[in-house]
């Protein structure tokens, strides 16, 4: 009797499951492309969307550039302004103050600090001038609160720890100015850490002794430690040294695209154990290996072989030749990176690290921007591709901001803990 | 608007113009320094070598001019300055500076190789204004960005110049 009841219950459950699956499959089959897009846009509107990396402060130091105006990216190269954030329904963004690596002496360090502060001031001034549409955000919940007010949240980061120089007190000064993450290093080694792309190779074997102190100070204050641009040892050191989860504000998966700036599967697994998050970036070279463009190359070689010696060309002839080369570039463009490459990386990171450890950091105005996600107004296309691949609203909410906000909250909780220990 | 943009993308993905393809960040760096005490004005241009070769000889990977190599072409400096003078100038107190290369060097490897071009000028009169034009490589790339750092008597200022905004003046 018991066995019969069990069997009946099992069959009933099976029937319900198969019925549910059938319904889902039928729904999926009957959903048109337009319905899918509409469903995705609904999700995109409901979830908090956070982009953790844009070099837009570089635009803000362009004389006359106005964040309140809409710019054409194909004419100006600009990828972010407030109208386009609204069009793309991008709720929050981290504007990174970037100072190019230069001489590492007292003069160089103090100049870097001055330039960094100028950029931070530009961001703050921009939020004040446009307080009807954006707000300066300092804490994780500010993004949600500003979204409720119908405003975009503007967070501040620093890309390259160079402006810290050798003075630990600068970390607190930047925190007080609103900085909530610091990318330890950029394209060359600095006093904090080694870069993934410095041609001189490793200098500190990861994070330097001073860099370790900087990480400790960031933990104490509640600034997220960003390992993007660091070499692999920087990542492993940061995992060991940091008392709070870390982030990679704009990095991808190396198994999908073999690039030094991307993260290996081992790193992705460790990132998951650490509780941190990898924010996927829209840089074409990190998303796919560009295939050879033989047709264009041979057409250009043919054009070059028929060229007059450069020194004998008139100005007009040079202009005409330039035009011919540009036409060849248009005729034979490199196959672009697309949103499908983005989703391939997300799929892989989810497979290796899990859904709780991936996010988005487009690197707009820093080289980021691909076909379909060319600027801030097009970021909804990421959501559409994720919906197409079967991600649920809950998963998309994690990818688009939930994961990053979780890490940000944990970083702040660690800071509170460290400060209370310090006080007692 | 958002729905229209997204639908447009998915329906006509193959019809998108080439201008919507990916672009790497096109960047150059210029550092200008003035010290009243030393009465010296220095200008340091950091240009990607591939961009320089593309601009001068229409081939980013050309070895013809061989900048900073033992076999550097005798016409390399002249060709470089003919180009630079078309797209770059510095005016000190309203007067255009006559730029002569003091030294050059290469840094980095492969695609990241940079050509540094250094100029040095005596500037005895106190600097009251400086005007910079930096539109290098805007003839090649519509999205070229040229970052300029200005350090005058211990104070620093940065700006970004490009095709749309190639010139800016600072007063002291």
Question: What's the main sheet of chain B like?
Answer: 6 strands, mixed
- Rg of chain B, nearest Å: 19 Å
| Second rung of CATH, namely the architecture of the largest domain in chain A | Alpha-Beta Barrel
Low-confidence stretches of chain A: 1-26
Count of distinct strands of chain A: 9
Gap from first CA to last CA of chain A: 66 Å
Largest interface: A-B, 63 and 54 residues
What profile does the largest beta sheet of chain A have? Answer: 6 strands, parallel
| CATH fold group of the largest domain in chain A | TIM Barrel
CATH class of the largest domain in chain A: Alpha Beta
CATH superfamily of the largest domain in chain A: Metal-dependent hydrolases
**Low-confidence segments of chain B:** 7-23
Number of domains of chain B: 1
Task: Determine the strand fraction of chain A and express it as a percent band.
Answer: 5-15%
Mean of pLDDT of chain A: 92
Give, in order, the helices and strands of chain B.
Answer: HEEHHEEEEEEEE
Strand content of chain B: 35-45%
Order of helices and strands of chain A: HHEHHHEHEHEHEHEHEHEHHHHEHH
The number of helical elements of chain A comes to 17
Describe the SSE topology.
The complex is a heterodimer of chains A (424) and B (172).
Chain A: H1 2-30, H2 33-46, E1 50-54, H3 57-60, H4 73-76, H5 82-87, E2 92-98, H6 106-129, E3 134-136, H7 140-148, E4 152-159, H8 169-176, E5 179-183, H9 209-221, E6 224-226, H10 232-241, E7 247-248, H11 265-274, E8 277-280, H12 284-287, H13 294-305, H14 315-331, H15 339-353, E9 358-360, H16 380-388, H17 393-423
Parallel strand pairs in A: 1-2, 2-4, 3-4, 4-5, 5-6, 7-8, 8-9
Helix pairs in contact in A: 2-16, 9-17, 10-11, 13-14, 15-16
Chain B: H1 2-11, E1 27-35, E2 40-48, H2 49-57, H3 76-87, E3 88-92, E4 95-96, E5 101-107, E6 114-122, E7 129-134, E8 145-152, E9 155-162, E10 167-171
